Amino acid sequence: MSGSSPPLRVALLIVSTTAAKDPSTDASGAVLKDVIDQEGGGRWQLVDSKIVPDVVAQIQRQIMLWADVAVPEGVNLILTTGGTGFAVADHTPEAVSALLHKQAPGIVHGMLAASLSVTPFAMMSRPVAGVRNKSVIITLPGSPKGAKENLQAVLKTLPHACLQAAGQESRSLHAGGVKKLEADAGINSSGGSGVGHSHSHGSGHSHSHNHGHDHGHSHSHAGHGHGHGPLVRHTAPSANPMSNDPKLGPSRRNRESPYPMLAVDEALSQIKEHTPAPEIVATKVNRDLPGSILAEDVKAKANVPAFRASIVDGYAVVVPQDGNMKSVFPVVSVSHAAPGEAKELKEGEIARITTGAPLPPGATSVIMVEDTVLKTLTDDGKEEKEVEILADKVQEGENIREVGSDIKADSLILQKGEQISAVGGEIGLLAAVGVGEVQTYRRPVVGVLSTGDEIVEHDRPGELRLGEVRDTNRVTLMAAAREWGYEVVDLGIVADQSGSLEERLRGALRQVDLVITTGGVSMGELDLLKPTIERSLGGTIHFGRVAMKPGKPTTFATVPVKTNAGARVRKVVFSLPGNPASALVTFHLFVLPALHQMSGVSPAGLTEVPVTLAHDFGLDKLRPEYHRAVVTVGKEGVLLASSTGGQRSSKVGSLRGANALLCLPAGDVPKKKGEKVRALLMGGVRCE
Ligand code: AMP
Ligand code: MG
Q1: Does the Cβ of 471 fall within 6 Å of ligand 1?
Q2: Are β-strands 384-389 and 372-377 bridged in parallel, bridged antiparallel, or unpaired?
Q3: Integer Cα distance of 407 and 398 in angstroms
Q4: pLDDT in tens, 490-509
Q5: Can you tell me the distance from the alpha carbon of 479 to that of 491, in angstroms, rounded to the nearest whole number?
Q6: pLDDT value at position 69?
């Protein structure tokens, strides 16, 4: 396994607050690159180099970007330089150590031994080394000299470590024993192996394998101790409160995420800034139109009514000069409310006319049937022949609706930004004036995806197996999005595997405008959403944490997507927490405003009203809370709010009946019954 294998990929992280401000102050980066290029035996390729300040969260975030998503190439070796000393600002070992899945004290030992042989001050470096996913990670000191010596001390053994960590089958690596390993690595040793391969493989597999990669013998690395003894922890749990390791248990879950925590308002302004503007489309006027927002001012295409029409049942007449119509008239025609040519009416003749029917040409007024008496019938007895009118002082235009008297052609009937409602008659107005198509803002199509190995279809027959959880979020969020007027695509459930997640998200982003995922956004190992969005999909996470309860890990990202037409657009991904209550609250608080913005609804988001508390409400000391509540109309129209009960984010029961989210501030003193707070209305309000 020498020259012919592809180069191992190295990423370099310079940890220095000074260099982060001014990269020209960094000297170690170049030195390390030289060591890798000149002493690495052509095995290495530096693929990325980044500078971050001495901030744990930023160090961890960059390392996770390199190590967490199993893109085909991956990063084999992550070297950090800086932040390993005793200074107040030195945090690199702690940041890295919390991310390691496997510790590599042997590498640490090798580096320290080498430096100690140069200076006792090597004791002032606190390196850590180990493996995260398939990447080997090593912290080097910040001084160019120290960094170089440390790297030189271990560099030759690292290809072997990296190949193993990357999953290369171990027997092919080890065939030939330590001597061959040393020879391959270019190390001369008298037998004391710094690499520490004390294990031997089962004798049943002793046939030779030189470059074999797959010989049908599955050799798992799990529990393969390499004779190193149990896992070594370098820090006491209390000294290292931050970890990605779900195995460390609930007491450690309040770790820091690499994403800054935004206030709810800041999160909302990020959404406003990065959600795409609405797109304008021509839309037919039909019963699907309600909910749409007009993207244009709409003018009447025609007069309403379009013809002079009678507003009563009676007789069209030609009013004589003196207005006196008291006389008997021949009925010369009938005008029903039906299209057709009418015969010209002359003075002295009348025409029977029904409500809404067009006036015959020449007619100037309509006499109500109540002001007339039937005199004679036609010979067949089926029609009126003569009618006596009892009215005098008749004026022209009586009982007539003039052309355009309701709506004039070309007048403005609806304005840009107005919403077409299903109850307000806007559709009827458009229909009346002959507008068959309007410009509206296209309503985005929403996709809903559940993530998690434990999640099963909610309607799967049979009992749950231990650990399985029914998919609550998908059906809930699809229903909610539909209720708000958006077309919904069911994206199903995807397991916690970066490959499948990436594939599913890619497909989804082609299909829909906005993707909602739930689960996989906390700091657990399998919480792959953020790295997948950032690394595999090239997206931008605008926020990954919000100071609120519930819903802290809510994540908002935009991802570049090429449309079928070849245009480059950005689509929106909301990764909501897995807990059902959190998912529904954050949908209403964050996703809805984005949907509104994309469809031109303004103001975006839930309607806010002041409400009066029906009982005391305790407050969270640190985070503002969005409390699921029932708001009703009480005496004298006061809106009264009561809690729907247990508000833990996992509590599905607390969703029942909730029609509002109370905005409770963080604080120590409970809000008292009768106090007023803001409430965001999710649904209609009923009387008590
Ligand atoms: P996660 O963010 O993936 O760690 O999920 C947090 C919690 O929410 C876990 O208890 C999950 O089992 C639960 N959860 C995640 N997705 C769903 C879902 N679609 N329906 C119900 N519970 C879920
Ligand atoms: Mg999960």
Answers
A1: yes
A2: antiparallel
A3: 19
A4: 999 999 988 999 999 999 99
A5: 14
A6: 66
Through-space distance between the first and last CA atoms of the chain, rounded to whole angstroms? 78
Instruction: Determine the pLDDT at residue 5.
Output: 79
Q: Whose CA is nearest to atom 23 of ligand 1?
A: 578
Residue whose CA is at the smallest distance from ligand 1 atom 17 = 578
- Token pair 């800086």 is at which residue? 82
- In three-state secondary structure terms, 274 is helix
Q: For the residues 206-225, what does the mean pLDDT come to?
A: 39
Residue 306: closest CA among 274, 268, 337:
337
pLDDT for the residue 657 = 85
d(CA 476, CA 505): 20
Q: What is the pLDDT of residues 103-126, one digit of tens each?
A: 999 999 999 998 888 888 888 889
Residue 674 has pLDDT above 90, yes or no: yes
Please give the Cα distance from 441 to 453 (Å, whole number): 38
Please give the average per-residue pLDDT across 544-550, as a whole number.
Answer: 94
Ligand 1 pocket, residue 643 CB under 6 Å: no
Cβ(534)–Cβ(560) below 8 Å: no
CA 353, CA 335: separation in Å to the nearest integer?
A: 5
Distance from C-alpha of 256 to C-alpha of 56, rounded to nearest angstrom: 9
What's the gap in Å between 470 CA and the centre of ligand 2? 12
Measured CA to CA, the distance from residue 613 to residue 675 in angstroms comes to 6
Residue 196 CB–ligand 1 contact under 6 Å = no
Atom of ligand 1 nearest to the CA of 579: 8
CA distances to 160, 177, 181, 194 from 191, in Å: 18, 12, 12, 9
In one-letter notation, the amino acid at residue 681 is L
Residue with the smallest CA separation from ligand 1 atom 2 is: 519
In the predicted model, is pLDDT for residue 232 greater than 70?
A: no
Q: How far is the CA of 498 from the centre of ligand 2 (A)?
A: 12
Our answer on whether the CB atom of 517 is closer than 6 Å to any ligand 1 atom is: no
Residue by residue, DSSP assigns 506-559 as HHHHHH-SEEEEES--SSSTT--HHHIIIIIS--EEEESEES-BS-TT-EEEEE
For the ranges 198-207, 214-223, 256-265, 369-378, the maximum mean pLDDT occurs at 369-378
pTM for the predicted model, two decimal places = 0.64
- Going by C-alpha positions, the residue among 65, 47, 54, 38 that lies closest to residue 6 is 47
